Amino acid sequence: MTTSDAPVIVAALRSPLGTAGRSLRDVSAADLAAPVLAEVRARVDSPEVDEVVLGNCTGPGGGVARVAALAAGLGHGVPGLTVDRQCGSGLAAVDVGAALVRAGADLVLAGGVESASTAPWRSWPPTEGSVPRRYTRAPFAPHPDDDPDMGLAADLLADEHGVDRARQDAYAARSHQRAWTHHSAGGFTGEVVPVGGVATDERLRDGITPQRLGRLRPAFRDGGTVTAGNSCGVNDGAAVAALVSPAVHARLGLPGLRVLATATSGVDPRRPGIGMVPAVQEASARAGVPLSAIDVVELNEAFAGQVLACCDALGLAEERVCPQGGALALGHPWGASGAVLVVRLFSQLVVQGAGRYGLAGIAVGGGQGVAMVVETC
User: Fold this and answer.
1) Given 161, 176, 249, 332, which residue is catalytic?
2) Residue 331 and residue 121: Cα distance in Å, rounded?
3) Where are the domains of the chain?
4) End-to-end CA distance of the chain
5) Active-site residue 332, yes or no?
6) What confidence tens digit (pLDDT) does each residue in 301-356 have?
7) What is the fold of 145-188+260-376?
């Protein structure tokens, strides 16, 4: 693929990110995504939408993308595809959207949505003489020994990569402070579509310091370094990008982000947090843009220790990651988080003029990673 035939993102917006069980607790996944889809669509003067592609992890099924497209009023003729690559679903959906544009579509709306608050309760069928057994997530690997809790896996990863507690708490505090500073200046307002009367990210807080975080107890194992303070929250939210063909982009004359390259990867499922590393390396190589040339780096901050281990493995200075705060401060609405990274890149590179190249990367439960490199145009 050459830059002349690369898909272009011409709009990218998100909902506010709510803490599970709080401000957006009564808003279904489809109803979270619908207003964002509608607003993104309104910003693109193109005759029709060829497809809606949304990432989603926890349900409720029924083709969330199709239901959201109908709820957004896009018309009966707009099909919807729901993508599940767990935490990478939103970025994977944008990747699918880019592929559809390369295959001939003129306009695809792609992103992700997650309503942890309204996700259905799930149970394994009963065996003879027993009752259904509820579970909170499906297996990420076929063997239990290869399927640790994500928090425990992040704790072990940090330990193996020599990322100590103090460094994790300092990183988390910096993410919170960066996000609060940007929020206080009204910086997130232009990228957020109000939903259900909520217009502001709920997790944002001032005054988070390494000292305050240092008082929290390990969350996943005795003597561990991962705590509630240096981990992301459980969140509700949606994010959507509009991808158009080069011909439509030329006609519209809008500034945007050209999708230069994407990549997915697989790693040991026992250490899923490292999964973004090979994906980032491959996307960078395919784009022909070294990490040193990337102006804005958005990596999903599931756990501070996990992000720092990835930074060390990539030779990437941690201060370059999420310059306006990341998921530690804003939240991690699983199926939407990868698309939130794209919105953040669009805001910084296109709206704020922060540079030429951007990188989004996210690790995935089960040992996978997704990455994307974009360029302003």
Assistant:
1) 332
2) 22
3) 3-120+234-252, 145-188+260-376
4) 16
5) yes
6) 999 999 999 999 999 999 999 999 999 999 999 999 999 999 999 999 999 999 99
7) Peroxisomal Thiolase; Chain A, domain 1 (3.40.47)
